[in-house]
Amino acid sequence: MAEMDEPEKKRRRVVELTEKMIVDGVYGGSCEWEGRWNHVKKFLERSGPFTHPDFEPSAECLQFLIDTCKILVIGAGGLGCELLKDLALSGFRNIDVVDMDTIDVSNLNRQFLFRSKDVGRPKADVAADFINSRIPGCRVVPHFKKIQDLDETFYRQFHIIVCGLDSIVARRWMNGMLDGEVDQTSVIPLVDGGTEGFKGNARVILPGLTACVDCTLELYPPQINFPMCTIATMPRLPEHCVEYVRILQWPKEMPFGAGVALDGDDPEHIQWVFQRSLERSTEFNITGVTYRLTQGVVKRIIPAVASTNAVIAAACATEVFKLATSAYVPLSNYMVFNDVDGLYTYTFEAERKENCSACSQIPQDLRFTPSSTLQEVLNYLTESASLQMKSPAVTATVEGKSKTLYLQSVASIEERTRPNLSKSLRELGLMDGQELAVADVTTPQTMLFRLCFTS
Amino acid sequence: MAATKGSKEQKYDRQLRLWGDHGQEALENAHVCLINATATGTEILKNLVLPGIGAFTIVDGHTVAGEDVGNNFFLSSNSIGKNRAQAATELLQELNSDVSGNFVEESPDKLLDNDPEFFHRFTIVIGVQLPESTCLRLGSVLWSASVPYLVCKTYGLIGYMRLVVQEHTVIESHPDNALEDLRLDQPFDEFKNHINSYDLTSMEKKDHSHTPWIIIVAKYLDRWLSEHDGQPPKNYKEKESFRQMIREGILKNLNGDPEDEENFDEAIKNVNTALNPTKIPSAVEDLFSSGQCNNITAQSPSFWMLLRAVKEFVHSEGSGNLPVRGTIPDMIADSQKFISLQNVYREKALQDAAAVAKHVESLLQSVGKPAESISERDIKLFCKNAAFLRVVCCRSLAEEYHVDSVNKDEITSCMDSPDSEMVFYLMLRAVDRFYQLHSRYPGVYNYQVEEDISKLKLCVNSLLQEYNLNVNIKDDYIHEFCRYGAAEPHTVSAFLGGSAAQEAIKIISHQFVPFNNTFIYNAMSQTSATYQL
């Protein structure tokens, strides 16, 4: 150790103490304590060779995180709980969280803000309470709602939005909400994380500038459902037996009363399905039907552990920190993680799709012959890998008037427009080059298509 | 309220689907030791407590400081001044009442001085933010006691993990993309008989369209072999011909157009993989030639006994092949045809497992152990996974650190690539050196950042010199590591927390494959690398 004279040692001691005191002085209040933000400050108050070109070290950076920066966390489940903790311990204080679900006992192996006494309560509420009480000064505001229940004004108030969703439909909706804006001066970065068992991914989306969720829709292959003829007449796997009971036997027998739908969360319902599935499997000499398998098929359960959620949420929270502070260049733009065999990550830049249905602002072409039926068009909208719509509703301007060609979600309209499905496009009065407006759960905005007749 | 088996099954349902009841049982019998309840440490433990490990013990002599509470979810401001092990245990215990939490208010160095055997009781020891000397001392004790050791460190935006385990065997590795074991190139008798019971030319359309593709390929392969002097399709051209042969077998309607026969489409699609020769994977062959396999004693772990039994099966009843796995993928077929085909494979697998069991029995006998030492269930599980067996052997820390055995080649070849994470490994070694010299880490206080750069550079150079590493480390990295000031940001700790916990679970459950042996995570670029050092 180098020799140092007494005055210098004293000077340094004073500086050390002063640095620690600055926390108490500036931020005051009983919820602060000496050294609280030491780990964070080293990245905000010091210059470095790898920082973002825009970065300016200062005490104001932390001030911004604590006082001003507003973050929205979508989902308070496996990823959401982790995200809230990670953000709160990185200095963020103004956090809103949206989740439409209530707590289930099967959440407790990883959603660590919940306890068995909380089962049945809204996730957003319990999560906010826990974080606010564990992390003094943090102000998490819960919203026990569907993301579709909130509007653009709500979403526009945030600096960064981070998603921990378990549904691709919801993800695409969120993506569409932020991509719809033509105004590029107020880009709200979207950080998105997803996990499944031991696999996960984290990505950064700058809506309108970088690849969005729909640009890379092929990375999320559609869920394969078993063909009906297999389920109905030639089952081979235990899963086929369960699907038979769920899809065919339950509606026929209505075991818990007329109109009572199968509830995957009701153990009595699952027990009934399990018994019938066992009977069916015995009939066909199929082994392997268990209660666990039955529940897994009915609820489309995806296995989950704490560790993968911890990793992906951490990566996402790091990106939120970088975006909010410019401390480092954000991830550009997609990271994949898998720890089945060792630990594997792969980081790449997903490219924008020129004609992306969500972010390219260009109306998509629909190429069909005039004699094609409306049903064929709907099939294309649902089956195409780049669109993967769920139940599209189509309207068009015919003879100067807006006409609903088909809509599934309202029974009376569905009944009225059903005959249109088997009619040809020409019969429906549609012209070459005209616009079709399509609404679907996968997007908050109506998507415009241009009909191009082929011969 | 004590958790009933039913409520635990519900709580752990989502993870039971990954590692099964037997994996969960292994977790619940485990006792994990964490050294240092820093943010990284408590994040790791959180991801072990939540899935229900049996017990944990935190060893930590530190007192909670203000900055500890700032980045740690499991410390609160009213624990400032208290012992850190105790404070963290309270809040971690609260996560899951199934788990038993303990703490020892002692530094690991003290324990190593007075009672090194303290560490022998643990299923795994996880050492976090340890200075090099403590890390190596502990490594030596645990290596001699064969206790698995996981070293973790968060340093600024860099995460580091090192696994130290002498020999870790994995039967259930759960590979992502396993090849099927269909034996089309070497059909066993019962399979041959089953194929012969089909006559594609005389079938009704319904049966024809619902014959499993395995049967179709087998039938056409028979034909091909008879037409090609017993030689299967080998190159692309021949395989195309073979596919065409099958295509022509699709029934035609009255107009002469091919009918819709999805099972034939499946057959054509699967020709390539179906023609893969049945082979023992080289990883398994390596295990067969290992010392542990060929020198069975009464002390041999059951993994090696089972492996030796399988090897003997391969050389006798197996005719050069592993026991038949017994599973087939789903395929278009009617129930009866599919189930009867599936049963052909299943019954063969049972037969092969029984043959292996005989070898196990005589092996056990030959070393004076009772036949019940290895259960029939374990034998069946082993046979089913015979193609996927993995053994992970990590070098000791002593070997990694010693000048004569350091992995120079790996280090220098990685450093040839400009973006390699290896530079961070070297920087972590350099800051360890700095700590040894100066009893502190570089750049902890703002005024130190600039002046520590030259001091750290000296450490870097002495490190490279000592190990005779002819590599260049850019000044930017030295500056960056002074800038970090040994910070432990929460998000990087949390990333490492998830990663390390899952590796610990792999060690405890013997399912899935642990990394070997050094993992570096770079939060700046969201990249990572694994090195065998």
Structural class by sheet pairing and helices of chain A: alpha/beta
Shape of chain B: elongated
* Share of residues in helices of chain A: 25-40%
Over all CA atoms, what is the radius of gyration of chain B? 29 Å
Low-confidence parts of chain A lasting 5 or more residues at pLDDT below 50?
A: 21-29
The assigned CATH architecture of the largest domain in chain B is 3-Layer(aba) Sandwich
Pathway (chain B): Protein modification; protein neddylation
GO molecular function (chain B): NEDD8 activating enzyme activity
Keywords (chain B): Ubl conjugation pathway
Domain THIF-type NAD/FAD binding fold (chain B): 12-527
Please give a structural write-up.
The complex is a heterodimer of chains A (455) and B (533). With 455 residues, chain A is α/β, with parallel strands linked by helices. Helices cover 35% and strands 17% of the residues of chain A. Chain A has 14 helices and 13 strands. In chain A, helix 4 packs across helix 12. Chain B has four domains: 210 residues, Rossmann fold; 87 residues, no CATH class; 111 residues, no CATH class; 83 residues, no CATH class. Chain B is elongated and about 90 Å long. In chain B, strand 4, helix 7 and strand 5 form a beta-alpha-beta unit. Chains A and B meet through helix 1, helix 2, helix 4, helix 11 and helix 12 of A and helix 1, helix 2, helix 3, helix 4 and helix 16 of B. Chain B: Pathway: Protein modification; protein neddylation. Chain B: Belongs to the ubiquitin-activating E1 family. ULA1 subfamily. Chain B: Keywords: Ubl conjugation pathway. Chain B: It comes from Gambusia affinis (Western mosquitofish).
